[in-house]
């Protein structure tokens, strides 16, 4: 019934017969469509968010490959090594399990009830992407900053896919598989421990945000840089306290996440992404990154900086980046 009513209304409106050639309206006249595959980034504005995320995600993943050989998994971009991670040996894992247990015992014995409850609440809230924690540092809201939220979701999805592929290559056991007294505070995910997905994703999002908010997007915002990096570090540490990860998982995740963040920024503005490596088989019992969490991951004593990778602009990524930048006055 409804189609018949609409057809009748269109056919008699103002006494003008219905003309499909003009039915699209002034915003996008049918005459503008000539069938040419232009692949214009501006067309992203016409699609729903899930479609934009799929398109941007495709472009970010293009050319990325994870290879395994010996004890090492390497992420390469366009055939060039970007991040090389060497798997821990059994002795290192046993030592790391002892660190995790000591952290858990310290947490269980915490006398300050408020501190104990706060940390426990954080761990539970950070099981899913911790958007509320980033929005505590920045005026983020899905209605107020929708493009920034889309960019964050794109980075989260991108980082998640990459780290899961690296986890598959190394297949490292979880802490509770190494020591019976380690009691995970939440359900242990059904994938490998090394590197930490939360460390990878939190680092990637935090650093991308630090660049996004900066007047010079090639550098991190001078005021927001440290709080954002500290948040990523705390999210990773919470996963160790929760009994889900070894400290070395966080180190590897920070290194991988930092490269992925710089790679995303490179796809948006055209800049190099610093590369690095981490050999977990030689890790020492240093607890949870005893070094400065604000320093670039590749410059930590346990990691090695290996150079930089030139990253070309990808127009669809650049489009979303530009839309997000306008929400911050740029």
TrEMBL record:
<feature type="domain" description="Phosphatidic acid phosphatase type 2/haloperoxidase">
    <location>
        <begin position="157"/>
        <end position="265"/>
    </location>
</feature>
<dbReference type="InterPro" id="IPR000326">
    <property type="entry name" value="PAP2/HPO"/>
</dbReference>
<dbReference type="Pfam" id="PF01569">
    <property type="entry name" value="PAP2"/>
</dbReference>
<dbReference type="InterPro" id="IPR036938">
    <property type="entry name" value="PAP2/HPO_sf"/>
</dbReference>
<protein>
    <submittedName>
        <fullName>Phosphatase PAP2 family protein</fullName>
    </submittedName>
</protein>
């Amino acid at each position: 019934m409804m189609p018949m009513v609409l057809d009748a209304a269109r056919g008699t409106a103002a006494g003008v017969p219905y003309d499909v050639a003009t039915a699209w309206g002034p915003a996008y006249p049918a005459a503008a469509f000539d069938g040419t595959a232009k692949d214009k980034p501006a067309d992203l504005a016409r699609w729903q968010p899930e479609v934009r995320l799929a398109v941007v995600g495709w472009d970010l993943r293009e050319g990325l490959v994870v290879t395994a050989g010996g004890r090492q998994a390497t992420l390469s971009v366009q055939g060039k090594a970007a991040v090389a991670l060497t798997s821990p040996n059994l002795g290192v894992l046993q030592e790391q399990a002892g660190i995790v247990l000591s952290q858990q015992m310290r947490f269980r014995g915490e006398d300050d009830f408020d501190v104990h409850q706060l940390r426990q609440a954080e761990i539970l809230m950070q099981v899913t992407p911790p958007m509320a924690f980033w929005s505590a540092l920045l005026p983020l809201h899905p209605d107020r900053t929708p493009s920034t939220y889309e960019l964050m979701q794109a980075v989260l999805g991108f980082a998640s896919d990459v780290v899961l592929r690296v986890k598959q290559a190394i297949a490292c056991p979880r802490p509770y598989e190494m020591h019976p007294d380690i009691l995970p505070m939440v359900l242990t995910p059904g994938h490998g421990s090394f590197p930490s997905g939360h460390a990878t994703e939190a680092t990637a999002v935090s650093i991308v945000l630090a660049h996004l908010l900066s007047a010079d997007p090639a550098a991190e915002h001078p005021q927001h840089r440290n709080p954002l990096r500290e948040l990523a570090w705390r999210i990773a540490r919470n996963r160790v306290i929760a009994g889900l990860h070894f400290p070395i998982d966080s180190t590897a995740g920070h290194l991988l996440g930092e490269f992925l963040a710089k790679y995303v920024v490179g796809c948006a503005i055209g800049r190099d992404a610093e590369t690095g490596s981490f050999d977990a088989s030689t890790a020492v019992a240093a607890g949870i990154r005893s070094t400065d969490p604000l320093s670039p991951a590749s410059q930590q004593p346990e990691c090695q900086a290996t150079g930089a990778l030139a990253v070309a602009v990808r127009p669809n990524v650049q489009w979303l980046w530009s839309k997000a930048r306008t929400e911050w006055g740029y």
